């Protein structure tokens, strides 16, 4: 009986030494490869920037982190400023194996959320493979000036874009109680119209609505609701190329296209000739353009304006994706635009190609 008592006591003592509270995580890592650091960093993302939470020594290729966490969240193990591996952390004992030459593919065990995340990544990889095939074929057809194949591939690409969007929405709805799901929804928010986003958010299980990415997703919905068709466009003031402040409200009395773009954005530059054509066609009928650049380099911005012959007013705060006007209008991909009537009311969004000309002809008819 005495031996049994001490055996049970030993088990209890061992368990107490390795026990983990309900809000604690333990991350045991193994690092292999070349150029290994002496330390690694545990990071999370806040306001689009990495925030270091902890530092661990790497001893014989091993490292360890411990801490507390609320909801499962995306974390990063960083070797330095440019090398890091992402994974979903949660209150669990987690093992992670990293190789310095393939940080995009860490082996993670112990996190159910990360298991869900890896399933999502496999879906995205399948989508990307199909997409690469279509665009490779499109570029080859363009090189050979094969207009028949190009027209077919344009339809195929459009159909594939729609299929990918539907697959993402299905994934979200099928996993509506997973803390990974808000991350997925936010990552693909650029695909969705406001109505899609409202439907997606409504499908979230209540237990995940206070998760970081769910809150961010809902904040984006609120922003888009404020700049929806039929709403008065929020005013903003930003400096032009000469450093003079320009306000959107100065354009009242005209139909104005607020055009979000950047010198570094290939699709924006490809769309610019269409905007130039529309501007020249309708400017005498009361149409104007306000270009809002998401550039960081003033020199690049001004060179692109000159090269693309963009003769309308341009503004920028040179803050890249942190551009104040872009954030106000919920812009997270470019090119993007909103069309305002004479009273500053939003009457259309994201008009490109012939759609821009048709809408302008419609609203300016008889002017």
Structure characterization notes:
This protein has helices at residues 2-18, 112-143, 147-174, 180-187, 194-203, 212-226, 266-282, 298-307, 324-328, 354-363; strands at residues 24-32, 39-46, 49-57, 62-68, 73-78, 84-89, 93-99, 107-109, 237-239, 245-247, 255-261, 287-293, 313-315, 336-340, 346-349. The chain is α+β, with helices and mostly antiparallel strands. The strands form 4 sheets. The chain has a 5-stranded mixed sheet with strand order 13-12-11-14-15, covered by helices on one side. A 4-stranded mixed sheet has the order 4-1-7-8, covered by helices on one side. Helix 2 (112-143) packs antiparallel against helix 3, helix 3 packs antiparallel against helix 4 (180-187) and helix 5 packs antiparallel against helix 6 (212-226). The protein is elongated, with a radius of gyration of 26 Å. The model is unreliable at 1-18 (pLDDT under 50).
